[in-house]
Design goal:
With 500 residues, this protein is of the alpha/beta class. It is built from 13 helices and 26 strands. The protein folds into 2 domains: 377 residues, 3-Layer(aba) Sandwich (Rossmann fold), CATH 3.40.50.12780; 97 residues, GMP Synthetase, Chain A, domain 3 (2-Layer Sandwich), CATH 3.30.300. α9 packs across α10.
């Protein structure tokens, strides 16, 4: 088995269909597979062998997808890494994975050779002037190779490693086998009701589980993948409209910036029929805005992780507020320690799913903590109702304990977010000698002149907030620190300085 067969089948059955298109480049499936096999032959000549790790430090561009398939075709292990992470995180990631080769573009003046540890890998540049060889030279190496044949692998062999830091900042490698990746992509197709030759927008990079599995799903369908290189809502809106994109899959944060882009108002984007999101909660006001703008036939919420791609899937149009739905096609989900509907506990996902990983790269300690007797511990807190729908209410690690009471930041945030003068809010705990912790709210005001007493009075009126859950301190800030997917980075909140 080799995941590369997905591209091979698409190229055999639909060679003239556009596989990848950007604002100014397009490649058919026949052109993409030819390019990938030339690169694979070049990599082989440079010593890349089955099982070797190859880092892809590349942003979204056609080259990235050709390189990805070339590495997979060789039976090597693709390691796509976020090109925008900090230098220190990049150093720790590279030294952890110990790659045979790194394929990278110019790092804005940051040399990469000093980040790789004692065993220096082969450096292959994409417009980088400090590399051992430029990517454009590889097809010339391929000319002296016999006809290319891809390397078969076992279903449980590792195809790729995705590094995730979540909101902790500590990189951890998640190996994904050929079976894991294919199964997750197939589930994505079914769960989001995709069809052959769909036209799908690609914004998330291959280094993120959403971007990686969305792209494999697109290739399974011989779809056209419309690539946006940067998180640019104006460029995305123009491409959605001009390329007649039919399916969107992104984070709520991305939909928010798209719908609030003034340039996006110029485009009708009428071809969009299917939208989906993952990564965080989408508030009701944004759900309504998406429905009003796109009038989708399909609107799905995908709850999952890098470790087990699908936990649950929900039909947003069914209007079950707050629910992340029911277990996905391959999934078995439960709430730890509770058989009573409505009782909050940790969300557990069965490792029997073909989408589930088997343990972290070089982290037996973390593997033992997160994998428990056949279950993956998500560290999410949630509950299940009597109809089998799941709800996620927060993270175990985010819990605030004040005066012995357990408080979920997300509950406080959901209350304050409804105040008409609040644009954004993030809540965390601050050490306190008397209570252990107090609740602190970091608020981005929607209007000038918002005052603390208004927010405090508002919270006192909310029956859903206990006395302990009311913020004891408010900090007005210009923005909330977020990850690339729009998740609040709580560890950075205490470093913010008030703007008012």
């Amino acid at each position: 088995m080799n995941l590369y067969r997905v591209l091979w089948e698409a190229a055999r059955n639909n060679p003239h269909v556009t596989a990848i298109t950007t604002q100014d480049e397009s490649y058919t499936y026949a052109e993409l597979i030819t390019w990938a096999e030339q690169l694979a032959s070049g990599f082989w000549r440079l010593g890349v062998r089955p099982g070797n790790r190859v880092v892809l430090l590349l942003r979204n561009r056609p080259t990235t997808f050709a390189v990805f398939w070339a590495v997979i075709a060789l039976g090597a292990v693709a390691v796509p890494i976020n090109a925008d992470q900090s230098r220190e995180t990049l150093r720790r990631t590279l030294q952890d994975v110990e790659p045979q080769a790194i394929i990278y573009e110019a790092l804005e003046g940051r040399g990469i050779a000093g980040l790789t540890g004692s065993e220096r890998p082969l450096l292959i540049g994409v417009g980088a002037d400090d590399a051992d060889i430029e990517i454009g030279e590889l097809p010339h190496l391929a000319k002296v190779q016999p006809e290319f044949r891809f390397h078969e692998r076992e279903a449980d062999d590792v195809a790729l490693i995705l590094y995730t830091t979540g909101t902790t900042g500590q990189p951890k490698g998640v190996p994904r086998t050929h079976l894991n990746t294919l199964s997750a992509a197939q589930a994505h197709v079914m769960q989001n009701c995709y069809e052959l030759r769909e036209r799908i927008l690609g914004v998330m990079p291959l280094s993120h589980t959403m971007g990686l599995h969305l792209y494999i799903a697109a290739t399974l369908l011989s779809a056209t993948y419309v690539v946006v290189r940067d998180l640019d809502p104006d460029q995305a809106a123009e491409l959605i409209d001009r390329q007649r994109v039919s399916a969107l899959y992104q984070t709520p944060f991305w939909y928010y910036i798209l719908l609030h882009s003034q340039q996006a108002e110029k485009y009708e984007m009428r071809a969009v029929r299917k939208i989906g999101y993952a990564g965080q909660v989408m508030h009701e006001s944004l759900i309504e805005a998406c429905i009003d703008r796109f009038h989708p036939q399909v609107f799905k919420n995908h709850y999952g992780s890098t470790e087990v791609y699908t936990h649950t899937i929900s039909n947003v149009l069914a209007r079950i507020p707050g629910s992340v739905g029911q277990a996905g096609n391959h999934s078995l989900v439960t709430i730890d320690g509770s058989r009573v509907a409505g009782t909050v506990g940790e969300v557990l996902v069965s490792l029997s799913s073909p989408e589930a990983f088997r343990g972290y790269w070089n982290r037996p300690d973390l593997t033992r903590r997160q994998l428990d007797d056949g279950w993956y511990r998500t560290r999410d807190l949630g509950y299940q109702d009597t109809e089998g729908n799941f709800y996620v209410v927060g993270r175990i690690d985010d819990m605030i304990i004040s005066g012995g009471e357990h408080i979920l930041p997300q509950i406080v945030e959901s209350v304050l977010a409804n105040h008409p003068k609040v644009l954004e809010v993030a809540v965390t705990g601050e050490p306190d000698n008397r209570w252990g912790q107090i609740v602190v709210a970091y608020v981005v005001p929607r209007t000038v002149g918002l005052r603390v007493f208004e927010l405090d009075a508002y919270c006192k009126q909310q029956s859903g907030l206990s006395l302990w859950a009311r913020p004891r301190k408010y900090v007005f800030v210009r923005q909330i620190p977020k990850s690339a997917t729009g998740k609040i980075i709580r560890r950075e909140l205490t470093n913010l300085e008030g703007s008012l």
